[in-house]
Design brief:
Order of helices and strands: HHEEHEEEEEE
Strand content: 35-45%
Oligomer: single chain
Radius of gyration: 28 Å
Number of helices: 3
Largest sheet: 6 strands, antiparallel
Shape: elongated
């Protein structure tokens, strides 16, 4: 009259185990994603600091405004043309790309350690807990662009600033996850104060220099 009774206990146990396992997998993925975001932020700061330091010490300290700019004056001593020293700027950009590449490669040898206490969101716990190693590798072209701008520096005075815009990408890797992050920094190269009127004619300083950095897997 009645069919065989179904034993629900094994089904309930399997369902509970599946839910628990899925929850652990989801929590684990979210934790790793949070760690990756923290790692990307720290790696971006570290890479920017390294680029600024190496370019500042090995490139900028040796450059003067007169080395990279020709200033042409008329018979009355008034500036009529500001012209970049293209050959010198190209040489400096090429050197900068090499130095930046070396700086990023050096980061690959020094992993960043992130205390898991940072995931709590509490500053008091930020430095505690097991540490996860983060690997940084250079992941794309290094682009160096030279730019310039004029800004008011006083009565009848104008500051002419020449600077580098350095852009690159790095790959940030934590266990089982990785992502790329853009690194961009502006580095002053040289400047001078122009007394009197700024010339209406000057050659555009825009220029770019690219190089493929080695991708380390």
């Amino acid at each position: 009259m009645f069919g065989p009774r179904i034993n629900w206990l094994p089904i309930v146990i399997l369902l509970a185990l599946f839910i628990i396992a899925s929850s652990f997998i989801l929590i684990d993925f979210k934790l790793k994603s949070s760690i990756l975001e923290i790692a990307k932020s720290k790696a971006q700061i570290k890479a920017t600091e390294s680029i600024n330091e190496v370019v500042g010490k090995k490139v900028v300290t040796r450059i003067e405004y007169k080395d990279i700019v020709y200033v042409h004056k008329d018979d009355h001593g008034r500036i009529v043309l500001i012209q970049p020293n293209t050959l010198m700027l190209n040489s400096i950009m090429a050197e900068t790309v090499v130095e930046v590449s070396r700086a990023l490669e050096a980061l690959q040898e020094n992993s960043i350690n992130i205390p898991l206490g940072q995931l709590s969101g509490f500053k008091i716990l930020a430095g505690y807990g097991p540490k996860m190693k983060v690997k940084i590798v250079s992941a794309a072209q290094i682009n160096v662009e030279v730019l310039n701008k004029f800004e008011q520096a006083g009565i009848n005075q104008t500051r002419h600033l020449i600077y580098f815009q350095v852009n690159s990408k790095i790959k940030v890797a934590v266990p089982f996850l990785n992502d790329e992050v853009m690194v961009s920094t502006t580095i002053p190269l040289a400047e001078t104060i122009i007394v009197g009127e700024v010339p209406n004619t000057y050659v555009n300083f825009s220029g770019k220099k690219d190089i493929l950095s080695q991708i380390m897997e």
